[in-house]
Amino acid sequence: MDAYFSYPLLISSIVLFLTWVVFNWWSQNRKLPPGPWGLPFFGYFPFLSITHENFNAFHKVYGNVFSFRTISGNLMVIVNGHKTIKDVFVNRADEFDGRPLQSNLVAWFSDGLGIAQEEGEAWAQHRKFFLQTSKKFGFGKLEMEERIHDEIKQMIEILKKEKNADLHFSVAHAVNSVISQVLFRKKFDRDQTFVRIQKSMRKIIPIFASNINMIVGYPFDLMFLLFPRMRAVKDGIKEVRKFTDSAAEEQIRTHDPSFSRGYVDAYLQYRDELLAKRKPEAAFFNGM
């Protein structure tokens, strides 16, 4: 047996293997932004608690751009600061149009559709449409500011009248009413439907703000299968999707090509124009 076994050869093989592992890790990470070190496979995920507080601490150490790895070695790059974010997502948008194709919370919530999840040409087309269309509905103009002021005034009046009013509910109603006016040209009513939606959102929002939002890929899928809390979030997402799908279906059913009530109508009109002209871009606007 000893004739076929060599300790020096074994030790040399182990050293070479470890050298290869270290070099491979170094070559993958040497051009990345600085950031905290983590554990093998788990990355820095076990040390994340309240993510926005963690990120604030990292920002003080590493600057406006830093990176770390999460479970299964997935890379996270965090961008901070108004100027830096504008430079990345506005001035150099075409260079940063990639999106994670693996499972993640945003993709799970949106079926991988929309500006937040699409990438490449699909993302570029939707971004272009959004920037052109949003201006028509008051974005960046006095009209939007007045709309927000009106909602705030109504919210303040309600808070004055109601004793022990739920501030979270009132703020959420005001914010969602502004968004609904842009999308559908109608406001949210303070009825039981909105109460149910708000209860569902309260299940979802803490997850978006937690370290779970840092999990990507198959570990994310496993969490939804194994943890009851995540199943409750799934039920909340279903409730919200049910409402938004119903609102979108009503817009489609009552759509008048000669009149645009809001962003959804503008989307439908633009899609129909592309289809009528047989433009190749029409393929990117079949989400409705």
UniProtKB/TrEMBL annotation:
GO terms for molecular function: heme binding; iron ion binding; oxidoreductase activity, acting on paired donors, with incorporation or reduction of molecular oxygen, reduced flavin or flavoprotein as one donor, and incorporation of one atom of oxygen; steroid hydroxylase activity. Gene3D superfamilies: Cytochrome P450 (1.10.630.10). Signal peptide: none annotated. The chain crosses the membrane at residues 6-26, 204-227. SUPFAM superfamilies: Cytochrome P450. Belongs to the cytochrome P450 family. This is Cytochrome P450 2C6. It comes from Trichonephila clavata. The gene is Cyp2c6.
